[in-house]
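Hey L., structure's done. Input below.
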Amino acid sequence: MPELRCTVQTCTHNKNFYCDLDGIVVGGNSAKRADETCCDSFEERKGDSYSNVTGEASPTSSIDCKATDCTYNEQCKCQAGKISVEGSNACHCGQTECATFTCGCKN
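Output:
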């Protein structure tokens, strides 16, 4: 499983830059650039919900990837050693991105 580093501090699943979900979904099935991807698992933190999260955050996570043109995508699973999800002040998933995305498409 890839090491997942997340800077989306507004997500209820973010605990000290790690995710408390066992797996996330990266969206962007027609993405050609990182900013065309997103974390479909994003949930905006409301109020003081940070302290109510009970899952254990882990540096690794299973990543289902819908960005089929990414060089790290093999049968909709991310094969990168490390990925970074970014979007520090996101209010919805469209404001997040997989910064590790690298297009393997031919122009």
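The chain has a mean pLDDT of 91. The longest strand covers residues 23-27.

-- N.
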